[in-house]
Amino acid sequence: MLLLGSKTYLLLNQKWTPTLFSAIFLACMVLVQGVNADEQSDREKFFESKVRPLIVQKCLKCHGPDEQSGDVRFDRPPSSSSIQFIVAGNSEASRLIKAVRYSDLSLQMPPDGKLAEEEIRTLTDWVQSGAYWPTGGPSTGGPGEGESTSKAKPPAQQIDEMRVNHWSYRPIESVVPITVSDSKWSQHPIDRFIFEKLDQAGLHPSSAADKRTLIQRAYFNLIGLPPTYDEVEAFVADPSSEAFPRLVDRLLDSRHYGERWARHWLDIARFAETTGYFPGSADTSYPYAYTYRDYVINAFNDDKPFDRFIVEQIAADQLDLKEKEKSALAALGFLTVGRRFMNRVQDIIDDRIDVVTRGFLGTTVTCARCHDHKFDPIPTADYYSLYGVFASTSEPEELPLLGDPKSNPKYEEFLAEQTAKESEVAAWLEKKRKETEHELRNRVADYLSYAAKSLPNSEQADLQPLGERGALRRQVASHWKNYLADSSDTKHPVWTLWHQLAKIPPDQFESTANDLIGEISTANWLKEVNSLLVTSLRADPPKSMEAAAKNIGKQLEAAYASWMAALISDPAATQLVDEKMETLRATLFASDSPTVLDTEKMRRYLDQAEQNKYNQELGKIKAVHAKHSGAPGRAMILVDRDKPHDPHIFLRGQPGNLGGAVPRRFLQVLSHVDGGHPFTNGSGRLELAQAIANPKNPLTPRVLVNRIWQYHFGNGLVRTASDFGTRGEKPSHPELLDFLAAEFVANGWSIKDLQRRIVLSATWQQSSQFREEPFRADPENRLLWSMPRRRLEFEPLRDRWLSASGKLDLQIGGRSAKIHEEAPRRGLYAYMDRDDVPSLLASFDVPSPDASQSIRAKTTVPQQALYMINSKFLIEQADALARLTTGSISDSERIVGIYRRALARDPVPEELQLGLRFLKQESKTESIDPWVQLAQVLLASNEFAFVD
Length: 948
Known about the structure:
Blueprint: E1 2-4, E2 7-9, H1 18-28, H2 39-58, H3 60-63, H4 95-101, H5 117-128, H6 156-165, H7 189-200, H8 211-222, H9 229-237, H10 243-253, H11 255-268, H12 289-301, H13 306-315, H14 333-336, H15 345-361, H16 380-391, E3 393-394, H17 409-442, H18 444-453, E4 466-467, E5 470-471, H19 474-485, H20 495-502, H21 509-517, H22 524-527, H23 531-539, H24 545-569, H25 579-589, H26 599-605, H27 608-627, E6 639-640, E7 648-650, E8 658-661, H28 671-674, H29 685-692, H30 699-713, H31 734-746, H32 751-759, H33 772-777, E9 790-791, H34 794-805, H35 839-843, H36 862-870, H37 872-883, H38 891-903, H39 909-922, H40 930-939, H41 942-945, E10 946-947
Antiparallel strand pairs: 1-2, 3-6, 4-5, 7-8, 9-10
Helix pairs in contact: 1-36, 2-5, 8-9, 8-10, 11-12, 13-29, 15-16, 17-27, 18-19, 18-24, 23-24, 24-25, 30-31, 30-32, 34-37, 37-40
């Protein structure tokens, strides 16, 4: 069977084998690497936000304008000398990567200490992706001392000029479509704009698509699922002129509509269910990320006005939500489901600025993190104004429930399992607390010695928390220092002696200390001191405070050892018999003693290995919340801090290098939207959201309308969907874009209304048949002389396989499934792990969730073909499809049944005859069931994977 165009053909004179299929299929596929229209912007953002700051901080000292060690410079694009140091596209061959990995003993950079693993990965990714370096911008050297940016701040008049001169910043014009010569075709306003451009180019639109094509197109565009054979036949047989509008309304009202369009938005929202790489054993999952996805599904299904959709995703917690509206809190997942960058706050905020500004405004604001935007009117001050907004927020430890959970067996089962896991964690921590108290009381001498060496009059610098018996717990050592600094108790049996000795200058310690200890008969303060300590110090006169501290510590340790021995003899003992020894023991067990721990202190005092173990234990609780079907949903919210953050510019993007203060406010180029006033309501998130959703804002409606158009036609009127700046493309039909944007706002920001307008247009209902004349004049079909033929994205393609086999689980909402492990849920519900994106999803161009993605790559690679041929999953669907048509029917009827389920049509006579001959030939062998082979060929055909 050969796959060509939209039809399937059987090769009868060749014996069918999977190998033959593979060869034919691969021969028919062209290796085409799709180009993402936003790729340049993404590469630039990655360089400016990740690579350039790293180079400035770690490399310029030795490889900058003042010094070029090894003839390598990093203050400008790689020169001919340094180009050998970086092999673009091949990190393994680049000496730079070898140097930062310390894999070459003769070349290790930086020489004073290896970079963090995340920093090494950043440089590796940069080189591997082509070592992109923007041209025409400022050097990496950044601003001089005292400057706020790396070049002069764009004056207000420059921003004003851009607001007037650049098409995307100008107010949306209310355009009236002109009357065109072909009024019959151009009855819809959209069609008049399209026809005008075609007519100017000497072209004309394609004829209307047939009804079978139209229903397939509508189903996949609007709900992402195939129509059944009966639905297709009923639509084809309906002669009413209202048949298609009724079909469109029915699909827009389908609960599956929200699933289809939520998937588009989740690409923009960089949705995933893990934090990304994090060292140690901390659980990186987001147990409640699915509640954000469900919010988006419901928002599309309910046709939530897009301006409200914006506000809820940025500031739902700031709204006066009624009890039945509390589910809107889940919208804040838009901000919180991003990467965590190993908890680097600056990068987390940068990610949130990026998803908001690119997602809603089509503007690459994060390019201004280190310097003024090189191409767009976004000064660094604007970036840090928004930085201040998000720096004024935090994520609460206890996430709010999305409504009161209802008691049912599943929920009760969840509570029981949660309680059991919490008890296990509490028991582990209590056991560790007791063990640690025991450890601390056995090492008092070490901690006191460290405290002695840390005294203000000590001459020891860069002191590491170490004792004779190994490393000390840093937090405990700090607690001992603070504890011993308190000299308010002048009659303490132990610490009075400590405080007197601590006052002695180190160079006078030996003589003065011995004099003090010898004053037992005359010094009143010594009469309050435990005599065991005095006797011990007199027996071994200390030469330093450290020696005295060690001696005192040993006596306290001896008291603890006596106590442990006493408990063995009498577990009910409450104190030591020896009064002097009991005094020392009681000191260690006092409520304020550094050796007495409560649960909170124990959590802080865990060392790294213990913290990893504790994280594993906590992960067990988190796993119950993440996986148990009875766990109630919670919203991944942000809340405002009590005191908002007053932002300063970070010179060169470095947090420790502060420039001038800036107010929290909206972008200056859009200051006319909200008056340019500083935000005064808490963090300013609500004011920011309202400015973005303001009808006066020209970017937001244009960006959204363009996205919707893109998802219907394959390309937007502006092909750089998340970059409406000067580096982005201009709209192919600017008047149409403004017309739709104005209508969109006027009609209550209704996405369903906008989509209905688009799909009822003659433009959208054109045939996709190839025509040579317009192709020569407009090979990219920018003028839309036909409907672009489009391949299904992976999610609806997989859904269609499962639908054909009768196995698709149509449950809406809920927790994700690992569809790469063959779960039968819709592709929308695929579990996305940032640190381990399944290769299956990557092979079929499901984008990385590390950053907002407005356009998916379109590749045709062997992995895709091989999956359709060899994967267990597809073979199982083919087997299920073949079995659905068994029974007391003829082979012809069974072939018809397979075609109807797979392609929602009857086979043409030629296909039927070829199928019968194929089955007759293959049935004589002992190979794979020919019915399964036939079904698989249909499931892997172009007709199955493409929408005309």
